[in-house]
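New to this. Explain the following:
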Amino acid sequence: MAKIDIRRPHSLSLAQARKQVSAMAEHLKHEFDLVSTWNGNQLEFKRSGVNGVMTVNGDDVHVAAELGFLVALLKPKIESRLHAHFDDIFGKAGAAAALPASKKAPAKKAAAKKSAPKPGGTKSGR
């Protein structure tokens, strides 16, 4: 049995994140014929060959699903669609936040260099 395990950080409130996950579940319902129900902060979803849960908390959304043999052939498509929905909901910056700290540090330093004034610089145009 194939498994899907995706965790996407977000900066929304819990209520906003739940609302966005509900909208995402509606899209997935039409795309993959999934039936879903809320149980606390967990959106349980299923269909023939698929059983999973999306857990929403204040920091991230976690998708864990088990795919039956035939549906496992669609795993790359399903994961791709989930990532696309997360990108739409939480922005691609959410994907960057999932990188290890060592990968993020240079970007922060580069951004700081661009915004910091040059020492001893003068105002341009005078």
